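Submission sheet (multi-component)
Chains listed below:
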Amino acid sequence: MAKEKTTNGSKRPNKRVEKAASSSAEAMKRIIGERSAAGGDDNKSTIDYLRESLAYEPVTLWDLRSGAEIAEAMQMSRSYQAFLDRAKTERAYVKETIARLEEAGFVPLDEQQRLLPGDRIYRPIRGKGLVAAVIGASPVTEGFNIVGAHIDSPRVDLKPRPLYDDAELILFKTHYYGGIKKYQWTSRPMALHGVVIRADGTTVDICVGEAEDDPVFCFTDLLPHLGRDQMKKTAAEVVTGEELNLLVGARPLPDRGERRFSLGLLKLLNEKYGITERDLLTAELEIVPAGRARDVGFDRALIGAYGQDDRICAWTAIEALAGLETTSRTAVVLLTDKEEIGSVGNTGAQARSYENVLLDIMQRICGKADERLWRYGLEASGMLSADVCNGFDPTFPSVSDKRNNAHLGQGVALMKVTGRGGKGGASDCSAEFMHEVTRVFDDAGVVWQVAELGRVDQGGGGTIAHFFARLGMNVLDCGVPLLSMHAPFEVSHVLDLREACAAYTAFLSRR
Ligand code: MN
Ligand code: MN
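Outcome: structure written.
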């Protein structure tokens, strides 16, 4: 951390305000008076002085971070990208996160009947969500420091009866998951991940398209030569949901007869995985962009990858938690599922399971049952809803209010409100809590910016914030800006990655 560097320079806005506040208004008038009296050139320094004392301007991390810190960010980016490559589904993400946590000394919550300060625990939520914590020294009535991110990402799922063949090609019917521009997902290599449960109850994990010599799959698109009618359609209709049919093969059984192409594939799947078409009916299979995360740009200052919404926040939150030694308040990281479709279901943020883990942790800290006490403990808690936001894109400036939009390379973005038109659905964070969080960040030398999602009435989006605000706790949205959010290849900034980790570390250690 480079506390000096960030807070140096009266460059940090809040320090400036503090400085200004410490000198009385009278003193300022005097300074301005003296400078004006000196005349000419000194007017400029008066303006500079006032600008430094009174005005707020965002800063760029490049001006604040040392060479060593930039190198550290690049190193962090290596680990982050490697993690993304291993964790392209929520199930894989939970598995990889558990491995990471165990390496950092975390143990399953259910193995601990009593929790003491410094204990490190985790509990998965049905293999698709996870709660991890470092137990603090202060009583549960003071509440927890919580960082919550989601680990599901937009993708394309298989329909329950996916397999068919047509015109000597073998295809899978699909149903997309989350908000995608469907045309972006055609004509590119795709991989298939998921689980199939066989007739005998055993589960087979499937992952095809990620290894160097694996085959891949794809959604086809129309050739431009015959695209005259298609090109007249709106982007929402250029490729429809029912046109996202995954090309998975073309080789039939040698014997002639009905469904010989589909049967050719079923035979192959049975030999490889021991599964039948009946087993596909209950399976969970997800189609995601094939290939690895990459550095973007000649200078490698950016990161391009699938699923950075919201795994960039999830990864940095877990890294922050794993790096904690002791804390005063208990530090908790929540990784939730189903955010992209409304945080529904028994693994989404609305599921009681997350709350239950928090109550279980409190019970094991207290050593006695007092639900009323725990409920107030939840209410006293503070949370960062760690989710990505849109970075300002100079190619598409019209959708943003530039001053009120997050910018890549300017640190974590704090969003008082999310939601849409007229703040509908927003979890409006209070001025008091937002101020407190910015103080915590300033004290730790964390660079932050404030943002809203695009222009008013342009669209909008939500996060898991309001589901936890409902428990009575203070919640503030705090995440990393991305370009091309929800596209198969999303772009983030290496210095924002490091800054997010620093921000979550500072918040999780909040006194
Ligand atoms: Mn998100
Ligand atoms: Mn999203």
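Remark: Confidence is low (pLDDT under 50) at residues 1-23.
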